[in-house]
Amino acid sequence: MDFSRLHKYASPMHFYSWSLAVAPWLGIACAVLFVVGLAGGLFYAPPDYQQGESFRIIYVHVPSAWMSLFIYMVMAGAGALGLIWHVKLGDMIARASAPVGAWFTFLALATGSLWGKPMWGTYWVWDARLTSELILLFLYLGYIALQGAIEDRRTAARAGAILALVGTVNIPIVHYSVEWWNTLHQGPTVTKFDAPSIDTSMLIPLLVMSLAYTLYFCTIVLVRTRCEILEFERNTTWVKQRAAGVNAV
Amino acid sequence: MDTEFFAMGGYAFYVWTSYGLSAVVLIANAIGPRMREKSLLKKIVQRTGDE
Amino acid sequence: MMSTLVASKAMLLRDLRRSIRRSQDLAQSLIFFVIVITLLALAIGPDDQIFTTIAPAGVWIAILLATTINLERMFLSDYQDGTIELLLLSSASLPALVAAKIGAHWLTNACPQILMAVIVGAVLGLKTDVLVALGLSLLLGSPILSLIGGVASALTVGLRGGALLLSLIILPLYMPTLIFGTAAITNAALGLPIEAELFFLSGVAVLSASLAPFGAAAALRIRLS
């Protein structure tokens, strides 16, 4: 009973209409959260007593880093849904998520390095978190390269799902080993990204920004999944009819 | 909105580059898929018309 | 059950025999390994002090590169001559057959490389402790490389630009193994215990051995469906 309902919602045709209705509202909510979060982060949060104004990079760095991991999990989960339970929508969501995840990983690296320059004196330090993010970026790029190399979309999505699952098993191992490697080679460095007791006035904008980034991803992945649906199902009648209808309006 | 705000206590370059880069990437990723969807729909209509 | 065991054993022996017949492949990968070490030595210069500190990293990098190059061959000839399609249809369990293939690949590719690494290390004058750590870390680490490599090899078999794609996919997954493998050797050189690193490598090897054959089998099914 529950399962048939899942299949109804997971049908690409149903999802397409549903996402057209939902995406604009998500987008508006996301924009509002961005305004609130940016105002809080740039104006209301007081400067950090140690890092001064440079700590404000946290409001774009931490949400990106959080999304880079979250999207990988979404990708692997959606891929597994397609791989194991043959839910076509899973294949499409996984493929749609990967580039967004890679971009967030890039942002986490770039902002982390821009934050590191005033703190460490150089743009790049083999800090455990930056190194883990770099490896995560490589994992995303490998997934995207595999998608590009296999012609058939369905095969590509399922092959990608296996790779993403292997990556998911690997991520905690990578994280642990890099952390361990870091303490071994540099001694326990006090990483500047650690804010032991962050003040509420600083924390609330951070939570708002993280939520804004999450909603941003949800909105974008809806649009990107629609594109995937159009590509996967371009020969079906409903896609042709819908395309004709949309263009006539 | 004074100059002191934009100066970011001497960290202006790092702070504004971070925010600027994030804004560029987020906006590009928001616009790109929408344009792709439009062109995909157009292509499907053209192909259907050709048949 | 019985037929699976018999079939896997037959698979293992067949692959072993074939690699012995094509011993030039084997020789090439060993030569490649020695060339990388030589390049490293030339790049660093003849300073013994620096070389012995960098040697563990160099040996591991050379092993990673040689493994990555070899991986493409794991399923390639079976893919080209259609053997894999027969395996998919066979009544024996596919993960077991794939595990046999990975095992054969490890025996014929990784084992000679480990032996070569230890010999090269001895010739270069590494201390006995360091040599033991080198051998043990490679012995425990290289099955991980072959097992994870098996999944990636199955995913990319027969694709255009397969070798480069394969290394792009596989090298990030190899990083934890590299970190702990080289750490064991560095510790041994400093006279520190190496058990922690070896336990870590064994743990990951067991984890990979229990998951990778299923992953590689699923990958082959998907690629050939």
Write a structural description:
- The complex is a heterotrimer of chains A (249), B (51) and C (225).
- Chain A has 249 residues and is mainly α.
- Chain A has a domain of 170 residues.
- Chain A contains 8 helices and no strands.
- In chain A, helix 3 runs antiparallel to helix 4 and helix 3 runs parallel beside helix 7.
- About 2% of the residues of chain A have low confidence.
- Chain B has one domain.
- Helix content of chain B is 86%, strand content 0%.
- Chain B is built from 2 helices and no strands.
- Chain B is rod-shaped.
- The mean pLDDT of chain B is 87.
- The mean pLDDT of chain C is 89.
- Chain C has one domain.
- Chain C is elongated and about 55 Å long.
- In chain C, 46% of the residues are buried.
- Chain C is mainly alpha-helical and 225 residues long.
- Chain C is 88% helix and 0% strand.
- Chains A and B meet through helix 3, helix 4, helix 7 and helix 8 of A and helix 2 of B.
Task: Tell me the total number of β-strands of chain A.
Answer: 0
Runs of chain C in which pLDDT lies below 50 for 5 or more consecutive residues are none
Determine the number of helices of chain A (DSSP H or I, runs of at least 4 residues). 8
Portion in helices of chain C: over 70%
What is the total domain count of chain C? 1
Say what oligomer this is.
Answer: heterotrimer
What is the gyration radius of chain C calculated from CA atoms? 18 Å
Calculate the terminal CA-CA distance of chain A, rounded to whole Å.
Answer: 38 Å
How would you describe the shape of chain C? elongated
Main sheet attributes: strand count, strand direction, barrel closure of chain A: none
Mean pLDDT of chain C: 89
Detail the poorly predicted runs of chain A: 187-192
Major protein interface? A-B, 39 and 27 residues
**Gyration radius of chain A, rounded:** 21 Å
Please name the defining characteristics of this protein.
A: 249 residues; C: 225 residues; 9 helices
Summarize the structure.
The complex is a heterotrimer of chains A (about 250), B (about 50) and C (about 220). Chain A is mainly α. Chain A has helices at about 1-10, 10-45, 60-85, 90-120, 130-150, 155-185, 200-230, 235-249.
